[in-house]
Amino acid sequence: MKESLAALIDVQRNYQQILKKMTKKHSLTIAEWQLMQNISDGNQTQTQLVAVTQLDVSTLSRQLGRLVEKKLLAVEKLEEKGAARKKYLYQLTDVGRKAFEDMQADFFSMSQDLFGPWTKEEQNLLKILLNRLKTSFERI
Fold first, then answer.
1. 3 state SS of 3
2. Which residues contact 61 (CB under 8 A, 6 or more apart)?
3. What is the DSSP code (8-state) at residue 82?
4. Which residues fall within 8 angstroms of residue 114, CB to CB, at 6 or more apart?
5. What pTM, to 2 d.p., does this model score?
6. Distance from CA of residue 129 to its chain's centroid?
7. 3-state secondary structure string, 8-58?
8. pLDDT digits (tens, 9 = 90+) for 71-129
């Protein structure tokens, strides 16, 4: 069993290295890119982002702040009567949307390079086995 887990660690390391290079090319971190994905998917308030990312509020606030500083995100204060906390809406700026779309294109290209030579059956088998592995980990 150690052989399979060791192979997974190697795959994860390689994946992280490639992602770091790709995100750096677009002046992003992996965490910033993932956060931009969530915002692009419609999770635009801090409450929604905390729920979907499972990040601590202070960590999320710092990441959002960095993206606003880089002018990749715009922030808009939402007015809600009787609300105890301030609520903000985060959206990708034009610069942020371009960086995000370029990163997504590079990610898709990497995915094609990795799995293009594989048959559909091989790709489906990998998905099935990874889902089984995920389920096994969840049982532990």
1. helix
2. 46
3. T
4. none
5. 0.85
6. 22
7. HHHHHHHHHHHHHHHHHHCCCCHHHHHHHHHHHCCCCEHHHHHHHHCCCHH
8. 999 999 887 766 667 789 999 999 999 999 999 999 999 999 999 999 999 999 999 99
Cβ-Cβ contacts under 8 Å for 16 (sequence gap 6 or more): 30
Beta bridge partners of 92: 73
Q: Which single residue is written with the structure tokens 């499972």? A: 54
Q: How many CB atoms lie within 10 A of CB 111?
A: 10
**Residue bearing tokens 């903000």:** 88
Task: Annotate 84-129 with DSSP letters as a single string.
Answer: SS-EEEEEE-HHHHHHHHHHHHHHHHHHHHHHTTS-HHHHHHHHHH
Q: Across the chain, what does the average pLDDT equal?
A: 93
Spell out the domains of the chain, with CATH numbers in brackets. 2-139 (1.10.10.10)
Angle at the Cα of 71 (from 69 to 73), degrees rounded to 5? 95
Which amino acid is residue 85, in one-letter code?
R
